[in-house]
Amino acid sequence: MLALQWLENSRRVMAQIEKTQMENIRQAASAMADSIAAKRWVHTFGCGHATLPIEEMYPRIGGFVGFHPMIELPLSFFTHIVGEMGVHQFVFLERVEGYGQQIMKSYSFDKQDTMWLFSHSGINNVNIDIALEAKKMGMTVVAMGSAEEFKDKPTRHSSGRRIFELADIVVDTCVPAQDASVVLKNHVDRIGPISTMAFTTAVWMTICTVAEILIDRGERLYIHPSHNVPGDQTARERLDAALAEYKKRIAGV
Predict the structure, then answer these.
(1) How far apart are CA 221 and CA 209, in angstroms?
(2) How far is CA 162 from CA 52, 131, 150, 165, in A?
(3) 3-class SS at 17?
(4) pLDDT (0 to 100) of residue 25
(5) 77 has a pLDDT exceeding 70
(6) CA-based angle 155:191:86, to the nearest 5?
(7) 151-155 long-range Cβ contacts below 8 angstroms, 24+ apart
(8) Is the pLDDT of residue 136 over 80?
(9) How is the chain split into domains, by residue range?
(10) What number does CATH give the domain 2-55+67-211?
(11) Where does the chain have alpha helices with state H?
(12) What are phi and psi of 163, to 5 degrees?
């Protein structure tokens, strides 16, 4: 069954992340914990389907304050496929060198921040722009993607570098370059991509490690609680507290 093939492919990648990336995850989590403990941010950025791990971490039940999503609507093509903000425009824009520099102008950063970048290939210009600008500002850069698979692939950026070469810490998602993993008869292209599953796996392994480090340091986490559990009388109060803390940090208080 093709369903079981996809499931096995996903399990294999998750097992490979566990086997090979735990030290890298620990290093990334340590840098992020330092940023959050300093009342600063872990900024998160990706393009296309690499925005999904960003949406997964905060705001989200079980996430906590400290992760700041940076998502450019024209670089996420999930609502419009053709027409306005269609796939054609997205594919063009993520390869426009200099676009990432303009994105960075819209935010406030600090050298105590961490920039967490998501890219399956690491070769497209917007992500590389973001990495270069973050490095200039003194931020720690964490890159997550299929680093080993793309180590010999040419970058599209004039710097000649991929985000995996620019990052201070790399977490390899261990996904094959093609991403889609299930072969179909009578078709050239495969189905069943697994990079989103790998991203989400590595994200929550990392965030749980961040939480572990912060708790061991005695830090309070402002967790986004479930507000759908009957009988939980203080859920809204805890949600309000988390959002209030987020607003304070955004304001620089």
Answers:
(1) 13
(2) 21, 9, 9, 5
(3) helix
(4) 98
(5) no
(6) 60
(7) 153/121, 153/123, 153/177, 154/123, 155/122, 155/123, 155/128
(8) yes
(9) 2-55+67-211
(10) 3.40.50.10490
(11) 2-20, 22-37, 52-57, 87-93, 99-104, 125-136, 163-166, 195-216, 235-251
(12) -65, -25
